[in-house]
Specification:
The protein contains 22 helices and 12 strands. It has a single domain, classed as Cytochrome p450. The termini are far apart. The chain is an alpha+beta fold. The longest helix is centred in the middle third of the chain and has 31 residues. β6 and β7 form a beta hairpin. The strands form 4 sheets. A 5-stranded mixed beta sheet has the order 1-2-8-5-3. It has a 3-stranded antiparallel beta sheet with strand order 4-12-9. It has a two-stranded antiparallel ribbon with strand order 6-7.
Amino acid sequence: MPLLLSRLSENGVTWPSQGLVLYIIGLLLFAHSIQRVRRWYRLSHVPGPLIAGWTNMWLTKGYISGRFFMELPALVEKYGPVIRIAPNQVVCVDVDTLYRISGVRSLYRKSEWYTIARISRDGDHIFTIIDPEERKERKKFIMPAYAGRDIDHFEEGTDRALTDWMELIDTKYLSSTKQARFMNFEEKVHFYALDAIGEIAYSESFGCVKEDRDTKGVMAVNDVTVPLLMAISNYVAFWKMMRMWPFYYLLPHDGDNSGFGAIVGHASTIVRKRLQPKAVPKHDMLQSFIEQGLRDEEALKQEVGIQFFAGSDTVSSLLYTTFLLLLTHPSVYARLQSEIDTALASDPITTPPRIITDAQARSIPYLQAIIREGLRLFPPLCAPPIYKEVPTGGDDVCGYALPAGTLVATALQQWHGARDKSFWGQDADAFRPERWLEAAAADEKEGPRARRVWEMTRRMELAFGCGQYVCVGKAIAMVEAGKVLGELVRRYNWSLAKPLDPPKVTNNGVWAIRNFWVRVEKREGFPTAGQ
């Protein structure tokens, strides 16, 4: 303070003026302190780490570590089902409450947190639209494509991308008794997923599999930006600032040569071509959007663009985490291969591209149990909080009165919920697909009122969200999971290539598996892919 007074005097500020300056500074500090105390007090009755009530930094530190969601079970054991994780944020792990919050008649709304998922400065896609009526209007145009009415077209796109991947394996990565070749499974899954969503969305592949490289630089950009986005996702004001001049120029743009900007630019080009008066209609999701009445170029660009980021990363995560579980559980792998062989012996695939169909995949209970168990243990989006805002008048959440405007995290609970021993049993941490078959058998024995599988599915499907906020791409993800896992296990024998240097699983927003090197051999009797 003496130093401040000295500096003021040196600059010609008289004592009365100095006193006024100090008074204003003190008043501002006092007002700021009052505001901070009031912010702390409004949720002071909700248990949680003391520092979380005063600053976002505790939560930010957890996101930077990439392990916050893994620490949630210990926090739940200490504090209960509702925990304060930031000055205005809480997380709830009660399943019934989460379904109520996201219910069709719920007054909860999306929070401004959703806007950080925008792929351009001003445009919105189905995930970032906050206004309920505007979101309902957009869903009217896009849901016929997402809801499965064109399920065969999902299969056509998946088959083309999967055939390209298997041709790459057959020509470049097959091992034999004479030669061992290693393949980076995580990388190739990403290549497949990007190409598949391109085929499904607008009938064009990115060419990642055929060229065996990240043609648009999406993976390289994601490796840097996704952890950064998670680390600063608590600061919505920062994102608002970044969308203003001149910071806007630091964001991705349509003209970029790689990464997000390249993808959005690619989507823009495709949309403009499709909207031309003489454009030839195609059998894909973009055409469905247009035929349902969505003809605004910016809206179409947003919906096509988000498919690459949301669809490719989440599907990739589901595929390679489940496949890692298969490779580390030999008995499960062997049983799955045997059951696929048995099922297809009585229902053979006779027409090109000779890839297992969605109907066949769904008819194999053990394959479906494996997919469900993989989703349970490694839900693709268990790290982002995905906040809903408490409505006017407040709400009672598990006995805690939450004032209006409080943000409730509705996705962080997935890791805890999957490992809740009070529901799943003492082996909740174990990969055991048989639990789903056992529950189905028990339900059948007990009769119509049995609800075990329903309760298990209800918890597992929180990986896709629920109620009015359920993931619009759920049907596509399940089609891809059944076909890809079923076909890869049916056609090849797989093993980890470097058992002394095993894969390393991390999560800074979505699951990543580094060092996932595999060895793959063709099973006897299978022709080259596509034949």
